[in-house]
Model the fold of this input.
Amino acid sequence: MEYSNEKLQNIYYQLSLGRKYDEKVLALVNTGTLPGFFHLSIGEEAAQIGVVDAMGPNDYLVPTHRFHPGLVNRMDHNDMTAELLGKTTGICKGKAFTFHISSDKDRILAVNGMIGAGTPNAVGYSWAIKQNKEDAVVVCVLGDGATAEGNVHEGMNIASILKCPIVFFIENNGWAMSTPTCRESVLENLADRGKGYNMPGVTVDGTDVLAVREAMVNAIALAKKGQPNIVEAKLTRWRGHFEGDPATYRDGKIIVANTEEGDKIDPVKIFAKYLLEKKAATKQDLEALDKKADQDIEEMFTYAINGPLPTAKDTLDYDQVYATNLGGSLI
Amino acid sequence: MRQIMMLQAIAEAQAEEMQRDSSIFLMGEDVGKWGGCFGTVSGLYTKFGPDRVIEAPISESGYANFCLGAAMAGKRPICEMQFADFAILAVDPIGNGAKQRYCSGGRLKTAMTVRAPQGICPNGAATHSQCIEGWFTNFPGLKIVMPSNPYDMKGLLKTAIRDDDMVLLLEHKGLLAMKGEVPEEEYLIPFGQGKVVKEGKDVTIVAIQAMVHMALEAAAELAKVGIDVEVIDPRTIIPLDEAIIGKSIAKTGKVVIAHEAPVRGGVGGEISAVISEKFFKSLKAPIVRVGAANCPLPYMGEQDCLPHKEDIIKAVKKLV
Done:
């Protein structure tokens, strides 16, 4: 595929924004002021930006609990960040965190806290938009670990029977919490998970944003023809499962940016090098894009930090628990 | 007035609602040409076709989650569990699905009705005969409806389908062939409104679903020995019509709660707690629960586990 320099620079900006987002979260976590479980995607940006950048404006995304870089490039920054911090100004009023986040206006479908259950949800959603004759697909993101769940297989089976417009994107980062992929499946490529459903699948390098993007463009076109299919991106999880995980199962090994080991698989650096070699951008261009990403991050976190935390009244608002109250005691 | 069977009331309610609103669809196992295992979706496949009546592969969690996804896209699914027992494989889409509204800050809608036939099915044994309402009472966001006769079934099922929340509507297999008066013209029954099935002054029996009929039989026998019981059918477990129960106990001061599910962990415990907390001053005797033994249902000998009319009579006599 041919890209203009402007487009390539925009993809670089998205990668940079994604990286800086989780670096900012990590910095806040390290201050001890953020509650909750944080699953960061540092090192996984190419896979996520490859997905969201391939999607059309009408397409729907089902993210996972580890998808901040993709999300921040797909949804309203303030809605997302305020939600991450549990503020009432968040898209889900602080009820969801990024574990259960959803946004109608940005076509983000609810993340399901039950690993794998989001797959049949996504299939149902894609069937509904097909019934409504919408020119759109659903992109359902899964981790490698989720593909062992029965729900994923039940969902894929129904998707193939009903010819649903859906792409299953497997972000294979090599680890299901502490379990390596070889202990999750005997398959070399998890894209083969769909073979039992006659579903095509491709496996790409998850550190190559353009490779992921192009695989997704093809996959979305196929899904629009009523052929559900799978794209798997292989990459490496840099950090523990969540912040605070000592990662003893891999001898505490954490990959960090700007080291020899990190640089080899750093999708942001790999893409920067590609742009410079291709002369699609100058060093100054990239620095300016990094600076813009820094400013944007600052703005969205300032907005989020300044939002109010929910009061007990906000939390125990039963109109949010039930849509209709026709009498009798609901509580 | 015409009399129809409960299963006809179920099929009719769905057909009328599907005719009225094209966003409603039905999904379940064997709901196609066969018309469902118990005949409760008879005629729907022919009338509405495979896009509105979807035959699901045998994957309860998968297709219930599919329905939940479609609901969040604005559809109004009726998700049929072939046997309520199988809902054990769909506890997540039903129970956690009911939380989607709250998790979105009140934005998402899960206008989904899960229909599930439960209760004793002769010799069905441990996994085809259970009453499951107790499994689901601990999920905020979920509503549970348990009609005991064809009239209530039709009105409550239509309300369930129109409701914007996740509703678990339990049918009792033993009542599906029961005939009752159901008017031709449309009507709805709101949730949270119980019914005094029989007035009386000595003891209140809060009877759930099939036990309503057993309680009425017990009442007839008790009348012969001069004991006048009042029978209350709550009709919906969530929301619960606490007021109708409180009013009855204010009169009788004594209460028996009867359901077919095992006593331990059953909704009778919850109703009992509500009575203790809110109507304690009316009580003149301890609350008595009647239900199944804490024993899995066997292939042969299930009646030894289940509650009977005699158990209700015994419980009432204990109180007077």
Q: What stands out?
A: The beta strands of chain A are 60-62, 138-143, 166-172, 175-176, 179-180, 201-205, 229-234.
